[in-house]
Amino acid sequence: MNLMKSLYLGSAAGLVVMSGAHAADLPLKAKAVEYVKVCSLYGAGFYYIPGTDTCIKLGGYMRADLGVNTNTIFQGNTGLQAGAQNRSSNAFTWRARSDLTIDTRTATEYGVVRTFFEGVFTWTSGGYQGVRVGGSAYDGNPNGGVLGGQLGVFHAFIQFAGFTIGKAASQFSAPWGQYPGNVYDGLVGGGGALTGVNQFTYTTEFGNGVSASIGVQDPSAYYQPGIQNLGIAPPGNAILDVQPPFFGPVPYGTPQLGYGLSAYGGTTFPDIVGQLRVDQAWGMFQASLAGHHNNPAYYTGVETGGGPGGKWGWAGQGALTIKNIPTGPGDVINVSGVYTNGATRYNIQDMTALAGANLIYGGGGGISSVGFGFAPDSVYAPNGQLQLVSTWGMRGAFTHNWSPHWSSSVFGAYAAVSFTGEAKSYMCGVSIPRALGAGFTSCNPDFNIAQVGANLRWTPVKNLTFTTEGVYSMLDQKHAGVANLPNNYAVYKATGNYQLKDQDIWTVMFRAQRTW
Hints:
Elements: H1 2-25, E1 47-48, E2 54-68, H2 80-83, E3 92-108, E4 111-125, E5 149-160, E6 163-168, E7 197-207, E8 210-217, E9 227-229, E10 261-262, E11 271-280, E12 283-294, E13 311-322, E14 332-341, E15 356-361, E16 369-375, E17 378-380, E18 387-388, E19 390-401, E20 406-418, H3 421-436, E21 440-442, E22 447-461, E23 464-477, E24 480-485, E25 496-500, E26 503-515
Parallel strand pairs: 9-17, 16-25
Antiparallel strand pairs: 1-2, 2-3, 2-26, 3-4, 4-5, 5-6, 6-7, 7-8, 8-11, 9-10, 11-12, 12-13, 13-14, 14-19, 15-16, 17-18, 19-20, 20-22, 21-24, 22-23, 23-26, 24-25
Signal peptide: 1-23
InterPro entries: Porin_alphabac
Keywords: Cell outer membrane, Ion transport, Membrane, Porin, Signal, Transmembrane, Transmembrane beta strand, Transport
């Protein structure tokens, strides 16, 4: 009996030990899986970041472009190699781009906190750089970067309690920027910087689609085309970027065809920008104002020579969108008009090749013709005061949907640039004749720009679009007679008397884009 009792107790103890061992091997209870949930607060495409109350949306596009008769993708041939209209001008330029957007939003007691980022990786090829000392005349991408590519940031900003802080679209520009119905980058006639400018802006909503914004933005990246010192010039004739071994940046002391050398001082004030906007079912109206400070350098190459005082310039713009027009559903008209005084880039925006200095030769090669168009913020002569340059312009487009898969746009733009009488007196009496000879029958640095174009878009499936577009631009310059130009080695142009006349440019673009 004692033996049997011992066996039972031993077996029971063994079972307890084995049960404990098996229990130790059992897995712990798994935590509930956190699935990604749809966030319907801010529209389609938003999801909650797991474990948070923040919603996120990813987006972007993949794009391939081909520009025909352009040295810079989707801009006209208007300067240096591009404006030579000979063997140094590109017949075409290619570009591939990938874009990524990240939009996050969180509801708080102060309202929605939003962050937005848009970054791009771009590969551009075919950039002809002209005469080179060693190496290839083609560098693959004039922007440099990773294996000929370029990383970029279009937008990076925070929005909180009505404030926008960071790199965002300029409050001066219309919602469509420089693209009222086109893919061409270079339209004049209004604000640009749609890919973002650093700013600190406050926006208030009045209700019924009415809002107003006021803020400051950085002028240095996109809004400084030049303050020209008309008195800087070496002895004898000289021309922009032509005298060996000057390949690349223009050396100090080389005049730009009698228009002096850009002589900005440091950035002393941000641009002040305000906007009033009305959004309704019929469309949109927006009025914008900007103040832009001109801070010149000195009269000579040293500070002891003194210099003119700075001046504030300004720009004003009105923009209008008309929807629900009788030509068809989804059709739209976008139009804007602008005036500037000492704030030229609010009209001839940063992405147009006609901004700043332009030298366009006539086609056909040889000593033929040339056109000048310079659009700085202001100019000054030796011991003179700063003279603000005035401009006005407009741009617009009509977009028509032929069917759910086909659409097209016709668009145009115009800008006029004028110098003050005092500026013209020095430029035509001293500066321009000194650089270009005395062969003018009429000297007038004013000029106009006109542009017109059309495109056709095919969208075979949702978010995949193929576009072809053509643009014609004309430089209407006011000089007449001849200009005695020295050798321009950068573009193989020889010394000679070139007839001063208007010039025109055409560009054709092809694009394929998949948006997601």
